[in-house]
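Long-time lurker. I teach an intro course on protein structure, and each term I like to show students one example going from raw sequence to a predicted 3D structure in C-alpha cell notation. This year I'd like something fresh instead of my usual example. Would anyone be willing to generate the C-alpha cells for the chain below so I can use it in lecture? Attribution to the forum is fine with me.
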Amino acid sequence: MPAILGPILLKQGCYAFDLWTPEDGLSRGYAYRRVEDAHYARNAEIKSRRRRLDAMLVCATLEEFTTAVAEREATYRSLVSRLRPQSVGSDRTIERTIRELTEVAAVVAQ
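-- Reply from a regular --
Happy to contribute to a lecture. Here you go:
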C-alpha cells in the first residue's frame, strides 16, 4: 500500500505528523508534547513500513505533503471511477442461498 508521511508540525502547542493511504485517506497523527517523541514515532512508522515492503513517500515540508496527497487522490479517484460495478448474482440466487443455509441450520439444530 503506497503511503505518504507528512512532516512534523506544531499543532495547538503539540507536535504531530499526518499519514495518507489510499485505503484510509488522511489519518491525523497523535499529538506529542515533545518534538523528540514525535520524531521517534515518525521514524518508527517509516521503519515499520519498510519492514513490510510498503511503498512510502516521506515528505519534508507541508507543501510537498499536500501536493503529493492531492496527486495521489486524483489518481486513485480516476482509477476507481473507471471500475464498472458487476452483478454478483440475481436476487433469486441470493434468496435460494439464504433458504439453503437456513435449512442446513435447522437440520444441524435438531
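Some talking points for your students: Residues 3-84 form one domain. Strands lie at 3-5, 9-11, 14-16, 19-21, 25-27, 56-58.
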